[in-house]
Design brief:
Elements lengths: L2 H12 L1 H14 L27 E5 L3 H17 L4 E6 L2 H7 L8 E4 L5 H11 L3 E5 L5 H10 L3 E6 L3 H9 L1 H9 L3 E4 L2 H9 L6 E2 L11 H13 L4 E7 L3 H11 L7 E6 L5 H10 L4 E3 H4 L10 E3 L6 H7 L2 E4 L12 H5 L4 E3 L7 H10 L2 E3 L3 H13 L1 H17 L3 H19 L2
Parallel strand pairs: 1-2, 1-4, 2-3, 4-5, 5-6, 6-7, 8-9, 8-12, 9-11, 10-11, 12-13, 13-14
C-alpha cells in the first residue's frame, strides 16, 4: 500500500464515528438511512447473504436516485444478453436504495456499499465474490478499486463523467486518484471531454459510448396526466425543476420584481425530499398561496394558488409534461446543474442558469439544438421563460427541438451493456 493510500485509509477509518452520527441525523428526515447500518461497514447479516451466488454476481453500484434510474436501463439490457444474470445492487443513498428495490428479481441481492476502508471492502468482497463490478458515473474509491484488483474482480466505470472541477481535484490528489483510475478494467465515458479527462488521470483507453439517461423513456401515463394538468390550468405553467437550497429564495426575488411572472401558474419541485416542508414554509412566509402535490392526490391541481409544490418522488415526467417550459435547478446556484435530459425527453424546453459544469457538453448541445436557452441569473431565467410564453411559434419550436434532442442521442444502453459483457468474457477466458 502506498503512503498516500495508507494515510487515506487511516482517515477513513478515523471518520467512521462521524459517518455513524451523520447517518443518525439523516435518518431523522429520511428513515431509509437507518436501514441495515452495519452493511455500511462491511457487516452483512445473515452471514449467508449472497453466498449462493459467489463468483456469479454482476455487481452494479448506483449511488443515488439518478444513477439508479440510469442503471435500470443498463440492467434491463444486460438481462436480455444474460438471461441467467444474478444482480448484486449497491447504493449509498436512501432514495437510490428505495428506487433500486424496483429493479430486483427473486434471486437478486441489494445492500449498501461499504465505507471505503480496507477492512470493510475486504468483508464485502469476501461475502459476495462478484464476477464483475460496474460503477456508475463517478464512483471510483481508492480502497474499493485496490481491493477489487487484489481479488481479481474487474471493474468497469460506466456512463462515466468527470467535470472540470472534479478533474482539478483529482489531479491535486493524483497519488490516490491515478492508481485507482489506472486499475479499472474499462472506462465507458459519456462525452469526449469526459474521456480526455479520465485518460489524463490514467484511465485505460476510455471509450465514448454516450449517456444512458438519453435512453430513458418517460412513463406514458405520467405524461398524459401532466398534459391534462396543463390543459386544465387557467394560466400558463412554468416549472422550477429539481431546485436546490437557496434557489427558491432567488426565484422568490425574481417573482416579486416581475409582475408578468405573477400571472403564471408556477410549479416548484425541490430536488431533495427532506426540503419539501422547508420550501413550503418559505413560500407561505412570503405570502404566497401554495398547494402541495401530496394533498390533491388524483384530483386536478387547484387553480386559486400561486405555486404548486411538487412534493413527491418518481413523478418528474408528470411535472415536466405539465409545464410549458422549465428552469433547471442547481444551475442558478454554483452546483453544476441537474440532469436536463429528462426534461427534453418529456418535450419540455429548458432555461439553464450559468452553472452547468456537471453536464457541460449536454448543456451546450441542448442550447445549440434549440432545446434550451442560457440565462445569466434567476431573474434573467424567469424572463427567458416568459419570452417563450409570449411567442407561441418559438415555444412550439422549442418543444419539438427538445424531443428531437433527446431522441438523437439514444443507444448508450446497448453499447455499454455490450462492453460490460466483453469484460466478463475476457475474465472467463483468462481464468478457465
Amino acid at each position: 500500500m502506498s503512503i498516500a493510500r495508507t494515510l487515506y485509509s487511516l482517515l477513513t477509518w478515523a471518520a467512521q464515528p462521524l459517518l455513524k452520527r451523520k447517518l443518525r441525523r439523516r435518518a431523522q428526515a429520511e428513515p431509509g438511512y437507518a436501514q441495515a447500518v452495519p452493511e455500511r461497514f462491511g457487516y452483512y447479516c445473515p452471514d449467508t447473504l449472497g453466498r449462493d451466488g459467489a463468483g456469479q454476481w454482476v455487481w452494479i453500484h448506483a449511488v443515488s436516485l439518478g444513477e439508479t434510474r440510469a442503471a435500470a436501463l443498463l440492467i434491463n439490457t444486460l438481462r436480455t444478453s444474460l438471461p441467467q444474470l444474478r444482480l448484486l445492487l449497491t447504493h449509498s443513498t436512501a432514495t437510490g436504495r428505495a428506487e433500486g428495490q424496483k429493479l430486483l428479481l427473486p434471486d437478486d441481492v441489494q445492500v449498501w456499499l461499504p465505507w471505503d476502508t480496507p477492512a470493510a471492502v475486504q468483508r464485502f468482497l469476501q461475502q459476495f465474490q462478484p464476477l464483475v463490478g460496474v460503477l456508475m458515473e463517478t464512483e471510483v474509491w481508492p480502497n474499493l478499486v485496490a481491493g477489487c484488483q487484489r481479488a481479481g474482480v474487474p471493474l468497469v466505470l460506466t456512463n462515466a463523467r468527470l467535470n472540470a472541477q472534479s478533474f482539478a481535484g483529482a489531479k491535486r490528489w493524483s497519488a490516490l486518484s491515478r492508481p485507482a483510475y489506472a486499475a479499472l478494467a474499462a472506462v465507458l465515458a459519456q462525452t469526449t471531454q469526459d474521456a480526455e479527462r479520465l485518460r489524463q488521470l490514467g484511465a485505460p483507453q476510455p471509450s465514448v459510448l454516450g449517456n444512458l439517461k438519453f435512453d430513458v423513456q418517460p412513463d406514458p401515463a405520467l405524461l398524459a396526466l401532466g398534459a391534462s394538468w396543463r390543459s386544465a390550468s387557467r394560466r400558463p405553467v412554468l416549472l422550477l425543476a429539481s431546485s436546490r437550497e437557496g434557489e427558491e429564495a432567488l426565484w422568490l426575488q425574481a417573482w416579486r420584481s416581475t409582475p408578468a411572472a405573477q400571472q403564471v401558474q408556477w410549479l416548484i419541485v425541490p430536488r431533495h425530499p427532506q426540503r419539501f416542508d422547508a420550501v413550503a414554509q418559505l413560500l407561505a412566509d412570503a405570502g404566497l398561496r401554495v398547494a402541495r402535490r401530496s394533498h390533491w392526490g388524483e384530483r386536478l391541481p387547484p387553480h386559486n394558488v400561486d405555486v404548486w409544490l411538487g412534493d413527491s418522488l418518481g413523478e418528474m415526467p408528470l411535472y415536466y409534461a405539465s409545464a410549458h417550459a422549465a428552469l433547471l435547478g442547481a444551475s442558478f446556484a454554483p452546483l453544476g446543474g441537474q440532469n436536463l435530459i429528462e426534461a427534453a425527453a418529456c418535450a419540455c424546453p429548458i432555461v439553464l442558469g450559468p452553472h452547468t459544469f456537471n453536464f457541460a457538453q449536454a448543456a451546450e448541445q441542448a442550447c445549440a439544438s434549440g432545446a434550451a436557452v442560457r440565462a445569466s441569473d434567476m431573474h434573467d431565467g424567469v424572463h427567458q421563460a416568459l419570452n417563450w410564453l409570449y411567442d407561441s411559434d418559438a415555444l412550439d419550436a422549442a418543444h419539438q427541438a427538445a424531443l428531437a434532442f433527446a431522441q438523437a442521442h439514444r443507444g448508450a444502453a446497448q453499447a455499454q451493456a455490450q462492453a460490460i459483457v466483453r469484460v466478463m468474457l475476457q475474465k472467463k477466458y483468462s481464468n478457465p
